[in-house]
Amino acid sequence: MHTIKTPISLLFTFLWITIPGFLSAQSTLEQVGRLPITTYSPEEYRGDPEVYTAIQSEEGLMYFGTASGMHEYDGVSWRSLYKRNQLAGIYRFTKDAKGRIFYTGIDFGYLEVDQNGETRPVSLLHLLPEEFSSDFYAWE
């Protein structure tokens, strides 16, 4: 015997076949163009919650300046580039043509890799006349 399908059953069959494919396509479309982003808490990088500046070195290391100092991230772990009450308030980074990173804030100077391969800040504040260096503070 030959059966005739009703329009409702045809519609149901069509939706049953197409909706699962549409839903997975929509999920894929939503992800196109999105970058993978990881958010770190101040507890993880041991710093202030507000990050004022960031820069990437020629070697791929990331540096972040906060009100509590400077922090280095190598893609796996965090390291603070200051000792408590030693260096604080880093508000701007910049790079010269050779890739050397300079910083400014409560202090100003540049980053240098020491003989152990560790990055450390080198202050240039001592080069300023005392009347400028005693209350030095620069955003730019």
Helix-and-strand structural type: alpha+beta
Helix content: 10-25%
Biggest sheet details: 4 strands, antiparallel
Give the DSSP E fraction (strand runs of 2 or more residues). Answer: 25-35%
Which segments are poorly predicted (pLDDT under 50) over 5 or more consecutive residues? none
How large is the radius of gyration? 27 Å
Please tell me the overall pLDDT: 78
- Principal-axes geometry comes out as elongated
Largest sheet: spatial strand order: 1-2-3-4
Alpha plus pi helix count: 3
SSE layout:
Elements: H1 7-31, H2 42-45, E1 51-56, E2 62-66, E3 69-73, E4 78-80, E5 90-95, E6 101-105, E7 108-113, E8 119-123, H3 130-133
Antiparallel strand pairs: 1-2, 2-3, 3-4, 5-6, 6-7, 7-8
Written account of the structure:
The mean pLDDT is 78. This protein has helices at residues 7-31, 42-45, 130-133; strands at 51-56, 62-66, 69-73, 78-80, 90-95, 101-105, 108-113, 119-123. A 4-stranded antiparallel sheet has the order 1-2-3-4, with no helix packed on it. Strands 5-6-7-8 form a 4-stranded antiparallel sheet, with no helix packed on it. The protein contains 3 helices and 8 strands, in the order H-H-E-E-E-E-E-E-E-E-H. 16% of the residues are buried.
Describe what is shown at a glance.
The protein has helices at 7-31, 42-45, 130-133; strands at residues 51-56, 62-66, 69-73, 78-80, 90-95, 101-105, 108-113, 119-123. It has 140 residues and is of the alpha+beta class.
